[in-house]
Amino acid sequence: MTADHMANTDARVDAAALAEFTAEHGGDLPPIAIVIAAYNEERGIGDVVSAIPAVIAGHDTATVVVVDGASDDTAAVARKAGALVCDVPVNRGQGAALRLGYRIARAGGARYIVTTDADGQYDPADIERILTPVLRGEADFVTGSRVLGRQETYDRVRRLGVHVFARMISLLTGQRITDTSFGMRAMRAEVTGAVTLKQPQYQSSELLIGVISRGYKVVEVPATMRLRVAGTTKKGGNLVYGYRYLRVVLGTWLRERRGAAPSGPSMASGPSASPGSASSSSSASPAEPARGSAKTK
């Protein structure tokens, strides 16, 4: 299957999923969209969704769960917990699911997007702390950091990998980063439409490098990385994960350098992040349906 064919297939899947989501939930979302990609997480997703605040810093939230071709009851459990579910029939990977979630949030008029994982490794109590710099206009993109905060894992290889990749991306981008793969992040919604996102799975570094490359203000805040509450990782063991993550880091960095373009505007106050090269914005997608009223919990 060629890259163009895969891209066209993805576009059709996304368009159909977005249309179905809008028909089920309406089009309008509150200011804050919490986006979660989930694949076979029926044992943990309910507790994750239930713990997300309905209001953060005076702003209403909606939790959008993109179920990525799950073969279990992830979608039903997430709905019962109060999430707005986009149930995609094919498994394409976390990166593809998050891209669709970002698009749903933008189409619904959400001003801010927060991501977290479906496995309970991130503490919902950290959401407001991570989102606050964006709400205050002090940053365009904020990522939590287990290095600045706390992590419960005793896996020495995983801990070493976090430091190695943080050092690598810091050197490549010119901005000091302590944790490149922390899954709880907050950003202005439009940032997700201004970066090139193509990775089907290991998307955390692709998004981070893309945001820095366009000159957006990036901030890290201390956060907690807990042990997975249920299920198993879908990304392989440490060696497989490390190899694939490295490929994405280097591939994204080279792509950004080759496609050098003016950096995107930062709306945050204060000194901006060190800008690098930038490539064109993410590929155009089919027109998004008109918005109606979303049914939030």
From TrEMBL:
The keyword Transferase applies. One of its GO terms (molecular function) is transferase activity. It comes from the Bacteria. CDD domains: DPM_DPG-synthase_like. Residues 34-192 form the Glycosyltransferase 2-like domain. Residues 260-297 have a biased composition (Low complexity). Keywords: Transferase. Residues 259-297 are annotated as: Disordered. InterPro entries: Glyco_trans_2-like, Glycosyltransferase_2, Nucleotide-diphossugar_trans. Belongs to the glycosyltransferase 2 family. This is Glycosyltransferase family 2 protein.
